[in-house]
Automatic annotation (TrEMBL):
<dbReference type="Pfam" id="PF03466">
    <property type="entry name" value="LysR_substrate"/>
</dbReference>
<dbReference type="InterPro" id="IPR000847">
    <property type="entry name" value="LysR_HTH_N"/>
</dbReference>
<dbReference type="GO" id="GO:0003700">
    <property type="term" value="F:DNA-binding transcription factor activity"/>
</dbReference>
<keyword id="KW-0805">Transcription regulation</keyword>
<comment type="similarity">
    <text>Belongs to the LysR transcriptional regulatory family.</text>
</comment>
<keyword id="KW-0804">Transcription</keyword>
<dbReference type="InterPro" id="IPR036390">
    <property type="entry name" value="WH_DNA-bd_sf"/>
</dbReference>
<protein>
    <submittedName>
        <fullName>DNA-binding transcriptional LysR family regulator</fullName>
    </submittedName>
</protein>
<dbReference type="GO" id="GO:0005829">
    <property type="term" value="C:cytosol"/>
</dbReference>
<dbReference type="GO" id="GO:0003677">
    <property type="term" value="F:DNA binding"/>
</dbReference>
<dbReference type="Pfam" id="PF00126">
    <property type="entry name" value="HTH_1"/>
</dbReference>
<keyword id="KW-0238">DNA-binding</keyword>
<dbReference type="InterPro" id="IPR005119">
    <property type="entry name" value="LysR_subst-bd"/>
</dbReference>
<feature type="domain" description="HTH lysR-type">
    <location>
        <begin position="1"/>
        <end position="58"/>
    </location>
</feature>
<dbReference type="InterPro" id="IPR036388">
    <property type="entry name" value="WH-like_DNA-bd_sf"/>
</dbReference>
<dbReference type="InterPro" id="IPR050950">
    <property type="entry name" value="HTH-type_LysR_regulators"/>
</dbReference>
Amino acid sequence: MEVHQLRYALAVADEGSFTAAAQALHVTQSGVSAQVALLERELDTRLFDRTPKGTRVAPSAVPVLDQVRRALAELDRVRTTADEINGLVSGTVAVGTVAGLSWPAFLDGIQSVHDDHPGLELSLREGRSFELQADVVAGRLDVALVSWPDQPLAGLSSWVALDERVVAVVGPRHPWTARAQVSAAELLHVPVICTSEGTGMRLAYSTLMRAEGLAAPVSWDVTLPTTARALAARGLGVAVVTSSSADAPSDLHQVRIASAHATSRLGLVWRADPPPSAAARATLATLRAHLEQPQ
């Protein structure tokens, strides 16, 4: 079997189709199909179920593809080790970040990684905190900037860049503009605006309300915190968001939620095992250096 055949098969598993895998690999779909077919013939194992509805990993092939992922990771570390000996940082690093984040310190860090390590193939993908963490656990991302209320997913190491609070944000004409704080129970009597399931903000809100023994209703389910704030500014509800020293200046009124559970964290996560590659470690070090700077 050839290494590229293993990479093709793993791409099909990760992307969900031969066409998407070919696009990700910048090769033809027919080439991917042919090479995966050769690999299946050599292994005497069907790796994928091909149906009119799409392609999915054959249940019996899951342990085979898990081993393929581990084998390719070890092969990549051979190159990393050689580069370390030669004092080079090369290879690929896939970085994830929560959608809509415009934190200058993080973006400056990404630029520094790009400029300081020209031999590094760096990629960036936005998403929801929970999904990004799952991608790091699965090895689809090397490092991600995400938020979590208590602990990140099992199997991840983490570094906290900011301690955040869960707050209520209202427009200039809302009655709560005269309030310094509200109870969690009061959120049950207003239309709540929050980001969608899987985001760090939504998880922080749900965790807070669950800890207080309350439901966590949402009237306006949005994708980005900027949308939540924009709706609150127009008096359409109360935006429940996380807030920190990294927030951009705003004319909206921020109200403290009186609960010991109204907390969240924003930070970097990476796999604990296997340990990160030299390229990923260099990326982490650069990002931390930028995120540690006073806000």
